[in-house]
# Entry
Amino acid sequence: MSELTQLRDEAQAAIAQASDLQSLDQVRVNFLGKSGVISSKMKTLGSLPPEERKTVGADLNRLKGEVAKAIESSKAALELAALNARLQEEVIDVTAPVRAENEGSIHPISQVIDEVVAIFAKQGFVVEQGPEIEDDFHNFTALNIPESHPARQMHDTFYFPEDDEGNRKLLRTHTSSVQIRAMKDKKPPFRMICPGRTYRCDSDITHSPMFHQIEGLFIDKNIHMGHLKGCLTEFVQTFFGIDEVPVRFRPSFFPFTEPSAEMDIGYVREKGEFKLGKGKDGSHDWMEILGCGMVHPNVLKNVGIDPEDYQGFAFGVGIERIAMLKYGIADLRTFFEGDVRWLKHYGF
Amino acid sequence: MKFTLSWLKEYLETDANLDKISQTLTAIGLEVEEIIDRREELAPFTVAEVLEAEQHPNADRLRVCKVNNGSEILQIVCGAPNARAGIKVALASVGVEIPTNGLKIKKSKIRDIESCGMLCSADELGIGSDAAGIIELPEDAVVGQPFASFVGADDPLIEIAITPNRGDCLGVYGIARDLAAAGLGTLKSEGVTTEEFQEVLDDGTFASDITVSIENAPKCSFFIGRTIKNVKNGESPEWLKRRLESVGLRPISALVDITNYITMCFGRPSHVYDAGKLTGNLVVRDAKDGEEIAALDDKNYSLKEGMTVIADDKGPVAIGGIIGGAETGCEAETTDIFLEVALFDAIATAQTGRLLQIDSDARYRFERGVAASTLKHFMTITRLINEICGGDNSTPVVAGSIPMERRSLEFDLGSIKQKLGVDITREEVEKFLTSLGFELEDKGDQLLVKIPSWRPDVAIAEDIVEEVARLYGYDNIPTVMLDKNIGDGQALSAEIAKLYQIKQSLAARGMREVTSYSFMPRKHAELFAEDVTLVELANPISQDLSTMRPSILPNLIAAISSNAARGYADLALFEVGPIFHGDTPDAQFRVASGVRVGGAHAKDHYGDVRKVDVFDVKADALAVLSDYVKVDNLRVSREVPSYYHPGRSGALCLGKNAVAYFGELHPAVAKQLDIGMDVMCFEVYVHKAPAPKAKKSAARAKLELSNYQAVARDFAFLVDEKTEVADILASVQKVDRNLIREVLLFDVYQGKGVEEGKKSVAINITLQAQDRTLVDADIEAIASKVIANVEKATGGVLRG
# Structure
């Protein structure tokens, strides 16, 4: 066996024995390093006869290449093994839950007001706001509800104690008071909606002493009842997302509108499930959804607008009511309880 | 307003079925609330006659009856104590279902005796409350016929909601008139003899020995009365009792029942006094303060000046338009009566009724306006009394004057199209109005419309439009969609849009929005009312909701408590809503408030959960304010309201104005609110932040990024422990606003190695020039200025 063959065998054995990258690198140093076995052999080439120098040199170079290659491939194998071993190690239980974070939410009342506003915004309405502790003029008188009008009893009003001049303020019973303030300050035409808190002193399963309304008003030269029907039909269909929801308008009474109407929408109970719209057979019942009407000329006069020049319609929607219908919330009182389980379930 | 179908048909000739009537009522504004129609359900129950009733051989309480159902004789075992031979009864034959309990009658053996049916009680059939015995039908009941008609149970009950403007429909006749006008049939006559004033005045055979005068017109504008002698009071005839019972009224005596009946028929209240109990003549006058009356509702009322009474020589005998007095009321033995038919003012009646809290049928009608056609009803009541109770009529006594003048208005036919957007022919308009009792006079393009006395609600052209519209049908008015290209689609002012935005910001920070009442218990409000005038309701729904909230925090803390009681104690809640620091518009403003308690998040397996602290809520407040101002412009002060922990709280100020507070709830307040947790709170007074500019340019300042190397240097200063880090940071920032890009606080340390009363504050400064790479000399220059500035501002020295 020639010396080189023996060297090759030794190198191969050493490479095979190197079980990790560090020992493999030691093998590389031992054989290929500056003072490694093969390099040392190279250095002795000069002492060989020229004939021999040539062949031995070529053999040595070949050997050097072979060893280098073998080391490379062993290195690759070892690296792969090391990576595999590491990956074996690095297994975690990804079924574990993520880091806990607080989950925020928006209250359904905010959400619904937002949705309603967006629908009326498309019809050119703008939002107005006003105070909640109101005076008699803005809440009642200007709206054609004089003292001792039976309609005042329809509004179970929260009052504040009388002041020295015998005036008493009140909590607004509707957001129409905001319309009065806005109409006094600005010039027609108007398209406004007024969302906000309203108050009636009434509390039971279907009444809350505080609730929310959106009242709308459209005053221009030639706005008639057909427009009222169109505007509110559009609203109801868009809000509930039902194109074919049946709607009807029927006569009613509000002191601040004449003619007055209530709007009903169709619903069905199928197998105990409540659903807006028609039943499978096309039949349905009616439920009241909002009040509306053509603005009473006295209301316009009270804010300095000539009812000969301007007319229009107004409407009022209960936010909780439409929120309950749309999102299937059963109990009015739960809106105000702040129960986090409820907020999580019904929030947005 | 309740009435029955047969009652309606007294005044309305119609072929329409109940369904059609119901739909029409709603369509013309008389909204149907409920219909109770038991005809179908009760149809299988027939009249039968008990022929024999023998003691059951095996049971003391049972009887074995032989019952004739018209076609055969049935044997029926019955437990009712009144089961006896000769009575007519309601029979449930085999196969019939009992409506109240769903029981189906089967042929069965009861204690060994066969029973083929059941004799029913009123309770079982749901037509009355008597469960003790079986129904005994009137003798004229026809065996084999459905029994319901003999007790009035075949008459559907209709309940409608009457809007406050439609006093005319608080009588069945008015409802019939509206239905006839809507094309549902023909209105029948009211059946009155006369309403000619002179004829009425001449009616009667002797002069009344009681006269009437009015002292407080116009609260009472007209009074017509008469004495009727030798009447026989007692139980009303069956038809009258049944009619009243059918709408839930309790029959009392014929005279009282007649007045109640006329109220229900024509919406016309009246009153009968026992003439024998009256002393002297009657006067309608203002009550005197403190005058008392025992009323027919068995209550005593203390009257106030301004209320209307009818009084005799001894004092008040009735509260005008509201209720009669007990002492002068009719009784079974009454023989001589005085009948009152009067017109009381709507507003005065409403005020008195409200003050005395009496809800009577009379008040309900007078405050909605009773038709001025008084004479007609006076005569109708007289005739009915004579018919049922007999009696001799005096000639009427009158006081005041009937409002004879009929109101009218000129109506422009063009306003129909103008208000409704639809053309309705003149013929149709005239037909609608005439059928409602309006009298019309042709004035070219105008109509002179004379308004009937029973419609005090109609006063202006729009009222006429509504009358036309409701008979034309709201559903027939064409729907017109609004032009959607009007306006810019921006419904929200910048200010309101911000409120939406801050809700989103807080929700994104893991907080849940709540909506809580605007009122709270006074004792809670007081804790949060430093320098605030509390606004208190005069008529709160309860003492717990008596005071307008001066802060949202107590409500949020209450929500924390109730959630914690359910086991949810890591909470972050917020509300953006109104608070009240007075009752003027300026003193009501919106705040964004929030609370955090417990862990910063839920427990998990990644390590210990950090407890929430002051800096969480400081961050919340800053998040809200960042929607309004540059956070760098805010200064932190320690001047906070008294409900914050003085050492662990702060105010965020713009100049001198605090725009937000944050910190831990004062432990004493927490104790008062009974909350056993450290509560972190914030309140942002968004109205104090600069108003967002409506048309601010969206463009941001030019961004200039340096391409040169940034270098960072750390400094640790030894300062007095009371020194506030904000002062250190500000003094560093001031050194060179161009080169110093960022100043970060990264450590505050007290303890070993730092002398008592001092703290070590470590900061990291990033330096970068726009035009060059900084060299050591630059950095050294900045560093020494930093050290000098900090020393100057705070007395701090660089730690060796």
